[in-house]
Amino acid sequence: MQQVNPPADQRDGLDALRDYPRSRYTELDRGDKEAGDVLVARAAFTLDDIAALHDVDDKIFADAKTFVLTRYLDNSRTWDLPGVSRNTQWKDVSKDAVRLKAHVKGSGEEGQQLADELDQLLVGVHDTTRLVGPTATKLDDWLERALPHIDEENKHADAQFDRLRAAARRYSVFKQAWDALEPRVPVFVYYSQYFTVRPRIHLANLAQRQAADDVDQEYDFGNLCLLDLLASPLPSSRRWTASRPPSSRRTGRIRTPWPPTRRPRRPGRPSTMRASTS
């Protein structure tokens, strides 16, 4: 689970030889399985506050309720927002692209050049190709330059342009969403690699620095956790005083003294201490 989002000083990454089950390592060594296909951990977070996503695009992320982050053995991470369509395939907008290209092509010599550029851009693009990365960025740039050649009175061409631009810019919108979500992902700390607490510390001074917002969240993390633990009140079931310790109990009207008196040893039964020394 730490590999979902480890602390900054623990981000050495996964190593297949060290971290994959040794008895099954031959699966990777022979190429029967790729490290990028081996799921290491997956974490799902409930989005209590989606204002950051709505600031990016309130329509696209209107139904966002859960954020899922997955880590793989090759140290890659993927993320998803269940219920929100993330990727657009070329087949979803190919008809709009063909018709818009024909419309632009009829606007003169510059329009013909733009149509040829679109053909070059779409080399290697198939129906199942997702509009992400450079393909989406280049298509958005082409649409920006083609906009002046679209007749604003032509409602069909105008609608085709809007659908193509929305599909091309969906990639950049999700990139902005990731930039908003990534800082909010909690850090997972494996207990054996926990931050070292400095041996000598003045908790009162630390509390004053915390109140003045003068602490290093990374350097003072362990000490701040200790301070929060000491400052938090105990549950009522764990509170006790010297007059009524947790081990005290009542039997009728007689209260067992605290500490309880030592029971006499039974005759003929050696004590533990005597047995161990003998």
Structural write-up:
The protein is mostly helical and 278 residues long. It is 38% helix and 8% strand. It has 10 helices and 5 strands; from the N terminus they run H-H-E-H-E-E-H-H-H-H-H-H-E-E-H. The strands form 2 sheets. A 3-stranded antiparallel β-sheet has the order 1-2-3, with no helix packed on it. The protein has a two-stranded antiparallel sheet with strand order 4-5. Helix 4 (94-105) crosses helix 7, helix 5 runs antiparallel to helix 6 (133-146) and helix 6 packs across helix 7. The longest helix is centred in the middle third of the chain and has 27 residues, at 155-181. The protein is elongated, with a radius of gyration of 33 Å. The two termini are 51 Å apart.
Short structural description:
It contains 10 helices and 5 strands, in the order ααβαββααααααββα. The chain has helices spanning 16-19, 26-29, 51-57, 94-105, 109-121, 133-146, 155-181, 203-211, 221-231, 272-277; strands spanning 39-46, 66-72, 77-80, 250-251, 254-255.
